[in-house]
């Protein structure tokens, strides 16, 4: 009986050891599974966050409406620089003939004049066509504005910038299809 008791006790201890070892194995497997799922979750979240952040190529494609390099290449064949696809749309430049205009000289016997070259920036072809068709009116407006200025009004950058705004606003007052977006003096000289 003693042998029988030892065998029964040995079988029970083997059962406890095997079930205890099995429990540890199940716990370790479950822990491993939880850690693995946690790592996968973190990687998935970081990938989603990273893919939601726009990259330069995404921004360029979204703004220009292009999605392939072949289309971008086609735009460059049209003569557009690569930089025009980044957000700021540059307009067409219209270079006007040189102006030599009299300035207002109240109480002075010596006439003063300005010699200036002006370029106008317009947003699209239709505005360029309209400005070209209305060139006599554009030139007359610019001459009238210069005639109303004294040499001291144009002697500093502030005065010239104010005149640019006046030119832009005056021209835009009679344009229908588009507006002048910029006025640039490409050459500017005052008589002394």
Q: What's the gist of this structure?
A:
56% of the residues lie in helices and 14% in strands. It has 192 residues and is an alpha+beta fold.
Instruction: Quickly give the structural class.
Output: alpha+beta
CATH architecture of the domain at 92-190: 2-Layer Sandwich
| SSE ordering | HHHEEEHHHE
What is the approximate shape?
Answer: rod-shaped
- What's the β-strand tally? 4
What is the overall pLDDT average?
77
Sheet bearing the most strands, described?
Answer: 4 strands, antiparallel
Q: How much of the sequence is in beta strands?
A: 5-15%
Under CATH, the homologous superfamily of the domain at 92-190 reads Band 7 domain
Structure description:
Among the domains are: 56-85, no CATH class; 92-190, Band 7 domain (Tetrahydropterin Synthase, Chain A, 2-Layer Sandwich). It is 56% helix and 14% strand. The chain contains six helices and four strands, in the order αααβββαααβ. The protein has helices spanning 2-52, 56-64, 69-77, 125-133, 135-147, 157-172, and strands spanning 92-95, 99-102, 113-122, 182-190. The protein starts with a helix and ends with a strand. With 192 residues, it is of the alpha+beta class. It is rod-shaped and about 115 Å long. Residues 59-80 and 82-86 have low confidence and may be disordered. Strands 1, 2, 3 and 4 form a four-stranded antiparallel β-sheet that branches.
């Amino acid at each position: 009986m003693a042998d029988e008791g030892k065998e029964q006790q040995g079988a029970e201890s083997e059962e406890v050891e095997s079930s205890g070892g099995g429990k540890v194995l199940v716990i370790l497997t479950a822990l491993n599974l939880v850690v693995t799922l946690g790592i996968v979750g973190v990687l998935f979240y970081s990938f989603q966050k990273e893919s939601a952040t726009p990259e330069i190529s995404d921004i360029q494609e979204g703004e220009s409406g292009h999605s392939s390099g072949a289309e971008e290449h086609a735009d460059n064949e049209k003569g557009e620089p690569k930089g025009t696809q980044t957000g700021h749309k540059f307009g067409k430049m219209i270079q006007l003939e040189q102006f030599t205009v009299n300035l207002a000289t109240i109480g002075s016997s010596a006439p003063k004049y300005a010699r200036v070259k002006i370029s106008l920036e317009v947003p699209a072809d239709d505005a360029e066509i309209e400005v070209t068709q209305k060139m006599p009116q554009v030139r007359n407006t610019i001459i009238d504005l210069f005639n109303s200025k004294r040499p001291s009004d144009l002697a500093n950058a502030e005065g010239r910038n104010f005149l640019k705004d006046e030119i832009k606003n005056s021209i835009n007052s009679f344009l229908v299809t588009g507006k002048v977006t910029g006025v640039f003096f490409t050459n500017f000289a005052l008589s002394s």
